Amino acid sequence: MNDVNLLEIARRFEHKQATSAVELSTSSAPLADGWMAFGGVGSYINKSCGYGFERDVTGAELDALVDFFASRGVEPKAELSPFAPQSLLKGLADRGFVLREFETVLYRPLPAGEDLSKLAQGTPAGLRIERVDPSDDAAVRRFVEVAGSGFVPEGEQMPEVFWEMGLKAARKPNSDSYMAWIDGMPAGAGGCEVSDGLTSLFGTSVLPAFRRRGVQQALIAARLQRGREKGSDLAAIMSSPGIPTERNAMRLGFQMAYSRAVLVKPGAGLVPSP
């Protein structure tokens, strides 16, 4: 990919974000050229995304976006790429949406012939990366527990809705889940999803006792190899700005594609979503 088309990367990644959320949702609805998804109060898939590329979003559709989430008791949420038209931003602002946070989208081409096994250097002795058998319930639950551990405060239990979504995601036909082991002890975990030539990496956590030892880089490398095995020409990963995930991805050849904005409409009685 010598001539990088960031608009096309955004189109592919945002479409994948939308369709993945729909697949995990308990209810969903189309929104212009994208989707809205709901997975329960407190679910990380409560979002709308993937729209603003092919056509303008009408005022009636934005009103439907507000109603879709508010009627379910959660804050309406819009996740947008920087290619969103100004009319869409104005329409959301007019309805009371405010900026909550930014997310970084990183990309990496997966050229044929590259030796991806050499990406992760300096990994600790005794490290083993293992793909999880989705039919092994105990293994899947262990994966979800480890992968989700980094998304809740240390020492706290994962909310039930996180368990439900995690188990569902790990069993999706186009997903692969990986566990990292060091000397027989669970050290970290991460998932990936491959479709339409794009490998999306997500849900990576390393347990505190094993951090700063190259575990996350090894998990990234394993998933990149899996993506290319499945025919991907591109990999992408989303991260909060400046955290270890972003730095580790860049060490393995990822580059910044764009920052995406997360907008929400707060309201009395509406529960924020992660």
UniProtKB/TrEMBL annotation:
Signal sequence, start to end: none
Asked whether the keyword Transferase is assigned, the reply is yes
Q: Where is the N-acetyltransferase domain?
A: 127-274
Keyword presence, Transferase:
yes
Q: Name one GO molecular function term.
A: acyltransferase activity, transferring groups other than amino-acyl groups
* Superkingdom field: Bacteria
> Which UniProt keywords are listed?
Transferase
State the name under which the record lists this protein. Answer: N-acetyltransferase
**What organism is listed for this UniProt entry?**
Corallococcus interemptor
What does the organism's lineage look like at the top? Answer: Bacteria, Pseudomonadati, Myxococcota, Myxococcia, Myxococcales
